[in-house]
Amino acid sequence: MIFNKETAEKTAELLLQINAIKLNPGNPFTWASGWKSPIYCDNRLILSFPAIRNYVRDEFAKNIEKQFGKPDVIAGVATGAIGIGMLVAESLGLPFVYVRPEAKKHGRLNQVEGFLQKGQNVVVVEDLISTGNSSLIAVEALRAAGANIKGMAAIFTYGFDVADQNFKDANIDLFTLSNYTNLLNLAVAKKYITEDEEQTLREWNVSPSNWNIEV
Hints:
There is one protein chain. It is globular and about 50 Å long. By secondary structure, it is of the alpha/beta class. The protein has helices at residues 5-17, 50-68, 82-92, 133-144, 161-169, 180-189, 195-206, and strands spanning 21-23, 29-30, 36-37, 39-41, 73-77, 96-99, 112-113, 121-129, 148-157, 174-179. Strands 7-6-5-8-9-10 form a 6-stranded mixed sheet, sandwiched between helices. The protein has 7 helices and 10 strands.
């Protein structure tokens, strides 16, 4: 679920402007999973544009507090959400921790890095939601450390049905600054893509794991 439509449209436009989101239906990308995709999203680019990262920080801070109440701690999911998560924590005047994909194999064997007390209320910040699996691994690590998870806030989601179900099963409320539907609507309106390309992008979103295209 998006925080609000105005933010969703503005965020989508900014991501397209800096090529954090690339749309290329005629020459699809290959994801690490092996899926063919007409879209690629790299929200790490946001950190390289001060005005845009400040916008994302401020929208997160404002909407997190409005939606979840002010938590005790902000947690970022490594590695993509460490930078923006720390900026959000700074804006809210809160402690920050981050969560590794798995526990370290040496030293203190931490998966959650930073100071976290049992029972503290945590909002998790993520950069991108695809299936939601890696994000929810972070949630479970925080829960195992004794955190009370108030919810998750992400920059962008592809809006896959499998992700919706995964978050529902985990009993986690997910809110995003923007999503796939708002992105496509804006991309057509601003002529980033044609209506035919929009149709291809919508078809992919219905069944991404099975989608392919003749090139």
